[in-house]
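2024-03-11 09:14:02 DEBUG pipeline.ingest accepted 1 chain
2024-03-11 09:14:02 DEBUG pipeline.ingest length=394
2024-03-11 09:14:03 DEBUG pipeline.predict start
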Amino acid sequence: MDESRPTQPVRPSGPAHLLHTAAALRDLPRGTGDRAVVMTMGALHEGHATLVRAARRRVGPRGQVVVTVFVNPLQFGAGEDLDRYPRTLDADRELAAAAGADVVFAPAADEVYPGGEPQIRITAGPMGTLLEGASRPGHFDGVLTVVAKLLHLTAPDIAFYGQKDAQQLAVITRMAADLNFPVEIVGVPTVREEDGLALSSRNRYLSAPERRTALALSAALFAARDRLAAEEALRARAASTGHPAQDRAAALAALGEDRAAADAHAVAYAAAGLPHGPSVARAAARAVLDDAARLDPPLTLDYLALVDPSDFTEIPDAYEGEAILAVAAKVGTTRLIDNIRLVFGAGRAGPTAAHQGGTLTDAASSDATTPDGPAGAAPATPPTTPQGPLGATR
């Protein structure tokens, strides 16, 4: 059944209804609850399923979950993989339904862009020129233009996006707030495979040796998290014990207690030294990436950045609060991205609070999904979230 128009709100007990036109979606009864949308470019995997399940939990049985599948040409630059991007609509429909979707909306290009490529587009502003925007000029303009159109076409109350694409999530949230879109933007944490690699449709392009090298991305992020946690633990010990005298470390060294002396020196340094968590985190991550650059096949780093999540500018060493450590690299011909959230010092704010009018809600605040922990705190469960452009893969 292709353009089905049920007389009652669709429930996730059978196949998701497959719609190809905005008119068919408008004719679909919405029910009495909220409508949630999950935007993807198809080739769905467990990361996308996590988004759909989060949407289903949020809207409940009276709500409606719409998954869009549209490979957006505007966000692919010259030489990128638009032509080889996987198209697996039948499998996507099955996965979406199993995760709780009521509808799969898979419009053709001329349905989304009826006059061809639009002459008027949304620009991502300064944030859209950094990191991913610098590596892929115009990418975020294409993302925001299609997101705006799909928000109009699907008319949701809530829209879910993956935190794996942290910069994308940030520019979408800013667009919705700045342009007064009446929608709540929800970020869902990154889904990882058992070895730590963030889920992505592009992982399928990696050979076995390339995949081993690609693990350096998540390993670098976790090294930064763990090194920061160790520094914070030292500072906590120093605060609880007072400033140990340097002569205690010297006395321990004279007795041959080298490990104890080293520990005493470290605690004394933590007590007396200035906070330098950002530089420690950067250095720990870069060491892993530098090693990966010497592997066969090598990892080719695009960027490693520790940024303020409000504008994606680099944070200074004296920074306190939440930050995002982001990495992008190529292994072979496959480009991959990843990120982790860290908290430095006392913190200017806790996890992002839920709010309306286009601003961000952390799905972990309303669902059981566990986000990346603060300042090196290891999550109780593996961190989870989908990827790529519009929740599709990177």
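2024-03-11 09:14:41 DEBUG pipeline.report The first strand starts at residue 17 and ends at 19.
2024-03-11 09:14:41 DEBUG pipeline.predict end
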